[in-house]
């Protein structure tokens, strides 16, 4: 029998730092909720808005797979591996922090905000050599279907990470139904509605709602509004 958990958008943790407005699906920084620690190996799902010219100063990470998905604006990245890049909507950025990295992320523009999703997964290998990658995807390939943006495989579509996880994004017209088949037994999927609304196995989800589903091989999703954009994060359920 499948198991599910619903996280409505308004129940997320919220931090307002002036230049940064962040919503936390799971416990993060000053937001601590013992019932919201993680979904399987999915540890952090932050929905961040950064003011023009502002950002996160240089800070460290280790032994975490960190994925950034920009939704609007341009985010400038610098790190201790020598990378200086800009990511924008349609891009996906990944860092394997491994033995340790330092990085900063800034809003490159002085006249518009940056919105992006910051996602952390526990890795399946510890103390790996740190690495950085980013790709630009053809967003036309997610029209009324799910486009793979991340996997465990170096030669697969999207970026790769040290974890048996698969991410997909789809953008759907109203009333379009899609089925998702899980890639690996024992995994679960965390569904996050970026915009619009959708039904997953008859559970209605609105914008920025999250819905976890596990102990199932497949499930159906139906868009309930035009331009409904959905992120699926398939992850192992055991740490």
From TrEMBL:
Q: The Pirin N-terminal domain covers which part of the protein?
A: 12-121
Organism from which the protein derives: Flavobacterium luminosum
Q: Which Pfam families match?
A: Pirin, Pirin_C_2
SUPFAM superfamilies found in the cross-reference section: RmlC-like cupins (SSF51182)
The record's similarity note reads: Belongs to the pirin family.
Q: What is this protein called?
A: Pirin family protein
What are the residue boundaries of the Quercetin 2,3-dioxygenase C-terminal cupin domain, all occurrences included?
149-235
The superkingdom of the source organism is: Bacteria
Query: InterPro entries recorded for this chain?
Result: Pirin, Pirin_N_dom, Quercetinase_C, RmlC-like_jellyroll, RmlC_Cupin_sf
């Amino acid at each position: 029998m499948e198991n599910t958990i619903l996280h409505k958008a308004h129940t997320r943790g919220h931090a307002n730092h002036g230049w940064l407005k962040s919503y936390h699906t799971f416990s993060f920084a000053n937001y601590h909720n013992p019932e919201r620690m993680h979904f399987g190996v999915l540890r952090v799902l932050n929905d961040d808005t950064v003011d023009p010219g502002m950002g996160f100063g240089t800070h460290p990470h280790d032994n975490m797979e960190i994925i950034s998905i920009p939704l609007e604006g341009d985010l400038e990245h610098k790190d201790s591996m020598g990378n200086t890049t800009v990511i924008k909507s349609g891009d996906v950025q990944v860092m394997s922090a491994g033995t340790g990295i330092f990085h900063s992320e800034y809003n490159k523009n002085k006249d518009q905000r940056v919105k992006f999703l910051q996602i952390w997964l526990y890795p399946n290998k510890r103390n790996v050599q740190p690495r950085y990658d980013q790709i630009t995807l053809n967003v036309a390939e997610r029209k009324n279907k799910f486009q793979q943006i991340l996997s465990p495989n170096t030669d697969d579509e999207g970026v790769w990470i040290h974890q048996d996880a698969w991410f997909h994004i789809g953008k759907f017209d109203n009333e379009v139904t899609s089925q998702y088949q899980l890639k690996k037994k024992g995994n679960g999927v965390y569904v996050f509605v970026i915009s619009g609304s959708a039904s997953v196995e008859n559970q209605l989800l609105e914008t920025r709602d999250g819905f976890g589903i596990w102990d199932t091989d497949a499930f159906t999703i139906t868009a309930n509004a035009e331009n409904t954009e959905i992120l699926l994060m398939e992850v192992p359920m055991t740490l």
